[in-house]
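Example 3.2
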Amino acid sequence: MGIFDFLSKQFVDVIDWVDEPGTLAIRYPMQDREIQNGAQLTVRSGQTALFFNQGEIADAFLPGLHTLQTGNLPLLTSLMNWDKGFASPFKADVYFYSQKEQTGLKWGTTQPIPVRDKEFGPLRIRAFGSYSFRVEDVSAFAVKMMGSLDRLTVSDLEPQLRAAIATSIASALGTGEIAFLDLAANQSALSEKLKAAVEPAFAQWGLSCTSFFIESLSLPDEVQAMLDKASSMRVVGDLDRFVRFQSAEAIETAAAQSGGIAGIGAGAAAGVAIGQSMAGGIGGGALPAPGAAAAPGEDAYAQIEKLHKLLTIGAITQEEFDAKKAELLSRIR
């Protein structure tokens, strides 16, 4: 370096950093890392400043105004063998770390999590929500996450944090200790349970999970449809009432079609058959078809077919199906 370069060189005498949204840590920019003896260091609320010498953490400064001299740089002074103090500029890397809470972050399961539910058996569950975190252990975070980078942001860490959350959730829910309906009914307690499962993964990087919320807990669409059908069966209860309910729905659908159930041809035949089904469900009788008698056992066969569909989807048991089938067949003369 020439004499003119030396004379024009500016030694750092004021060091501070204003937090930037989404930024977790920065390396303070300095030419040749030379700091003036007696320089002023300002560490703002929610920050920690670390001095590094040859890749090792030397000294740490908490919020406040600090004058950089031998007395308050004990580790750096020891490393540089400044046993009698120093008056000239010194070299060090200075990093600022933000310890403010990072909020409004989203998490979700990219794939449904298989669980063994106590009530429904094997299920696949999806979950989504939000979380927040902060840098808790600055030294661990500096070594494991920041390293020698110039800057580290929340977006840099999010993929790793979401992966850790997904793994922790899969482990917590996979035990099947709590039924799905109980999980969905008490999301506040489940959020606390999952927060406790996530915290160890965050702690290994010097982070703490300050909040964790579940906003949605759901099943795949086809599983939810089966659950809804089974719930409908439990609400309906009696099989005869369910058959009458299904018949009423069929009449409504036929009436909505072009010409209604009073139309000619197939429409009329369908209306008569449905009416006979309702009558059979209510009292076992049959409505006579205009101009023709209904085929013997037509109601019974139609109802057995419906019952078989209910058996197939698991809405009724084999015993219930067999009993009702026997009853319906006994009506055929």
